[in-house]
């Protein structure tokens, strides 16, 4: 039996990616104070006290109307549909936001089981402020602080008690082959990944820099198991204009080192560029 899936949902900047990284025990999701940093949904298998599950980080729901905002919303809703249970995260510092109410209504209509996690409760003052969220009509609120790791154990205990959890599985004999899809921005890396999977697993946009995290998904082809890694586009250093993009590029370079095989994608209409050659050189230096 496959491990149950747990989706972390909520509006932008309530701490979803921070909780995801804490549970995954690695800095896998990019974190920044800018709303809309998480675009694609990310998955990671975790083990909690001998029980296995897959956690899913999602983009913030309710961004301003735009094509990208609609895609983020669609990816988040798809994660909710796939999940066995959801963690609905809110931010005590902002109080009960109208978007919180909208997402809560969406969860109730879905019929999916969920828990409400009120984040950033780091003192008795914020414990009092958290009572505002009882307006949602929930009997139980989980007051947590991802920063202080407060309340996380109780949250996870409640979560797993509502699931039929698979005991830690025996590792499979079949080798899984990591394959990284790399290249410049907007050459079609995410589109290729979606085509291989047969579904819109990652957000595709004409806006350069849409992919920020290294997204990993599994694929079995002709009896072979692959982990496909969709990476952020690599631009020339002189054109990297933000710490967030610099970190995304660092993650891409790590993915190249992690992969057994790299697929370098180029734009046939533009032809090979100097940057394509530099990326090919990076792959060659890593002997991939």
Q: What's the CATH H-level homologous superfamily of the largest domain?
A: P-loop containing nucleotide triphosphate hydrolases
Uncertain residue ranges: 28-39, 166-173, 204-212, 238-242
Q: What structural class do helix, strand and pairing data support? A: alpha/beta
**Contiguous helical run count:** 8
What Rg do the Cα atoms give?
20 Å
Order of helices and strands: EHEEHEHEHEHEEHEEHEH
3D structure, described in words:
The chain is an alpha/beta fold and 288 residues long. The chain has two domains: 5-167, P-loop containing nucleotide triphosphate hydrolases (Rossmann fold, 3-Layer(aba) Sandwich), CATH 3.40.50.300; 176-285, P-loop containing nucleotide triphosphate hydrolases (Rossmann fold). The chain is built from eight helices and eleven strands. Helix 3 (98-110) links the parallel strand 4 (85-91) and strand 5. The relative contact order is 0.14.
């Amino acid at each position: 039996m496959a491990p149950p899936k747990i989706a972390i949902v909520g509006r932008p900047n309530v701490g979803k990616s921070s909780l995801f990284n804490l549970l995954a025990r690695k800095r896998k999701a990019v974190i920044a104070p800018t709303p809309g940093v998480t675009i694609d949904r990310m998955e990671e298998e975790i083990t909690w006290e001998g029980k296995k599950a897959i956690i899913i980080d999602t983009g913030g729901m309710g961004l301003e109307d735009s094509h990208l905002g609609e895609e983020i919303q669609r990816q988040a809703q798809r994660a909710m549909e796939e999940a066995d249970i959801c963690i609905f995260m809110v931010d005590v510092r902002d109080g009960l936001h109208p978007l919180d109410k909208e997402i809560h209504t969406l969860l109730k209509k879905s019929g999916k089981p969920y828990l409400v996690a009120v984040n950033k409760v780091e003192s008795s003052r914020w414990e009092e402020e958290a009572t505002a969220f009882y307006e949602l009509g929930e009997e139980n609120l989980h007051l947590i602080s991802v920063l202080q790791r407060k309340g996380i154990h109780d949250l996870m205990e409640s979560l797993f008690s509502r699931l039929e959890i698979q005991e830690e599985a025996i590792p499979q004999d079949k080798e899984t082959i990591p394959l990284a899809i790399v290249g410049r921005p907007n050459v079609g890396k995410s589109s290729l990944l979606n085509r291989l999977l047969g579904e819109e697993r990652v957000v595709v946009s004409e806006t350069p820099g849409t992919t920020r995290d290294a997204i990993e998904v599994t694929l079995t082809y002709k009896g072979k198991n692959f982990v496909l890694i969709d990476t952020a586009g690599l631009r020339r250093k002189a054109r990297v204009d933000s710490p967030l993009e610099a970190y995304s590029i660092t993650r891409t370079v790590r993915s190249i080192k992690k992969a057994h095989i790299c697929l370098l994608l180029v734009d046939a209409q533009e032809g090979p560029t100097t940057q394509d050659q530099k990326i090919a050189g990076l792959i060659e230096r890593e002997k991939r």
